[in-house]
Amino acid sequence: MEVHTVTTGAESFTCNVFLVPGERTTLVDTGTYDGVIDEIRDRVDALDAVVLTHQHGDHVDRLSAVSGRFGPEIYAFADHPLRTRAIADGDEIQIGDESFEVVHTPGHADDHVSFVSETTLFAGDVVVHDDGAFDDGSFGRTDMAGQSRETLIESIERLLDRLPETVEHMYSGHGGEFHGDVRTVVERALDRAERREPKYPDK
Hints:
It holds the Pfam family Lactamase_B. By secondary structure, this protein is an alpha/beta fold.
């Protein structure tokens, strides 16, 4: 599956935004990068869908602009004025040319979902390969209002239960993409989360 990170040119803080061309050309999150529309237009002529991992500002800031320019279906777990399709745990959706299962993974955000196919994980912020706190297996922060480390741990466990052994590509909301043994990275993130240590002890 072809995946383009369309926020690599951003100079200010944003989440990673992934463009997946195919039978159902899809954008995973929209980020805060002003240039995201031009980046999409440089690669595809049309955008069929936007799927949101969650609705923190760094993931949805450009949603209105993307919606206005391309008119895609917008899939989200929680209500949003621009949402056209509600998704729930266990649903199947198409991203590019592959079918993905929706896995509800709260803790970092109540409405957080991840998307899992036979080959690929779009993890949002629940699990990250490298993010400045940990390398080769980190997890979303849970030290702010409305967040829960215990719930996040349960979510990572749920994700592992539903992660096929064949998954070898992981695209997260922050940090770098990962190709290889995704299950081991997720297990390492779970182990670190279970230690209950602050992710950012100096903050």
